[in-house]
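Anaerobic ribonucleoside-triphosphate reductase activating protein
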Amino acid sequence: MTFNCITPSVVFQEVPNEISLCFSITGCKVGCKGCHSTELWHENNGMSLTNTNFTLWLKKYQGLISCVVFFGGEWQPKALIEKLLIAKNHGLKTCLYSGEKHIDLNISQYLNFLKTGAWHETLGGLDSPTTNQVFRDVISGEKLNHLFNKAIDMNTFKVNAVDASHSQTTILDTNSFKANAFEISTFEPYQFNQGANNVAA
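Predicted structure tokens:
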């Protein structure tokens, strides 16, 4: 099986505070209902991402990116680990987005960030308070989901005079109001597992 990917792109939201080059690997084994990227289900889609090609992409964006993100690829651990090591050797941070609940320690030890959990439309993505998905700093184990919630934009508030002694605050755009602006991130240790049984087959 070749390690194929869709043409990579520079992304800004997938890893908060990082400018990332994103590689979407084809051959996903999870097949989430409601997936918006079903082209990633078929392993023959895309182009072959050899170590040489991967290195050329990194050189192309050298000085512009700080992180490399893989959407999938954990089902081919050897090929993925090779790419992660190359990225590390180029001084870049690494991130994996996986639909699995657990990732093999052989992979996670080369990651700075890890998103786990299948997509469930009713639960929402990382910016949803009900999501089953978790985004972590692998080094510290800290859960970082709160970074995906938009901070309160003070321009959305307007104070209206009700009378001479009272005032009322109204939210002009409730979609931009997120309670997590006051939330303190919590440390929830992640249990990494070792062994091939924890890698999607």
